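U., I forgot to send this yesterday:
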Amino acid sequence: MKKAVRTFTIALFCAVYAFGALAFVFAMGTPSETYVAYADDIGLRVSFIDCGQADSCYIEFPDDKNMLIDAGENDSDSYGSIIEFLDGEGVTTIDYFIMTHSDSDHIGGAVKIFEEYEIEVVYRPHQEATGTSANPYTDPALKGEGKYGFYGDTVKEKATLTYANAIKAAYAETREVYVFNPFDDEINRISDAAGSYTFDFLSPVVTDYSDANNFSPIMVLSYAGRDIVMTGDAEKENEKDFVEYIKTAKLGDYGGHYDRMIKGEFNADIVKAGHHGSETSTSREFLEIMCANEAKRVNCFTIFSCGTNNTYGHPHIETLERLFGTKKDENSELESGMGFSAERLLRTDLNGDIRFGVSSEGKISVSTEKDAEITAKLTSGYKDGTPSQTATDNGLKPSEAADKLPDKPSGDGCADNELFDPETWKNPAEYSAIQWVIIAAVVIVLLVFIVLAVKGAAKRKKRRK
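Result:
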């Protein structure tokens, strides 16, 4: 009997040790290389186009489909830069055209885009286009149903000719026009048949905003273990409502699109700062959700899309200090830094077109038209007589070790309460690596116990004979 107990103890120790080591490997993850040369094995390409004090982003997906997010300002220099870029890429058809919101610096060039290219699907804001008193317009989404129409109890209006013309062109030139709705499973995710990439619309979760910027969707593009976050001009109100939703949502809601954020396991690799780097966007609370592990933020690329010497002072010093500045005491007028590295900061006004590539192995490449000094990148714009200011660089450097860290912040590992939440054990298809390790360890221990019990019974039977 003593021998059996000793054997069982040794077997149990070995099983726990082996699977503990395996759990550690799973938690650490596979290191991914980040390099700066553009490569031939790129599966996903994301380009932030320099179009002045405006916005536009072009995406090439692994399945050869493409997407244009926003179309710059209603100015030939702005939309002309976008058309020149797209023509240089050989674009004739755009599979998805995303108009984030109704302001002219995002949809001012939309009519020209519809004129130049064949557009397959358009996503548009949940905001009624009314035109002007001199040129009224009736928005087709008023009578649309499901993904084609407005939803909820509130629909705000935007009375500009630029927005009305963009919406009018969308319905005239495109076979499918959808209204942003993060809760409509038909349209809230774009992906290929194999699911190798996903593009999710995660907000706005509220439709009653006074500022048109807040109708911009929070969007997440995921491929090969990498995540890219884009928000148009979403302000702190949109971000706040999104954060509140994450805090109250349940795992599995809306296809599980929010699960990693709910678990505190989401860490963006690229974040396009909201509203051109304005102090009213890219809030601390939002970044704490989208870049949950502070130790991994040094490797996150941050993009500001803004114009040279713009009159809005973008990017604002408050945003620069919030992301890249040094830690400050509670009495500071500026927010303390969140641990992002200025070496991973890129700006269209200083760097021109910014191109990212992600390989099927999760390697990130980046190239820019122009180089810029860190001091220049950390310097705010000039506005209303207020001189430019330069953020105090935190001096943090990108680190290979950061890539190897677990997604959850330290202290939130296996002892996390999620393991004791029955909801996390309902769907085996969504089990984490740690959960599978626990199951495997339990099974092995049970098997060892059964084998020892059977052997013990056989020996007792033999003695009785």
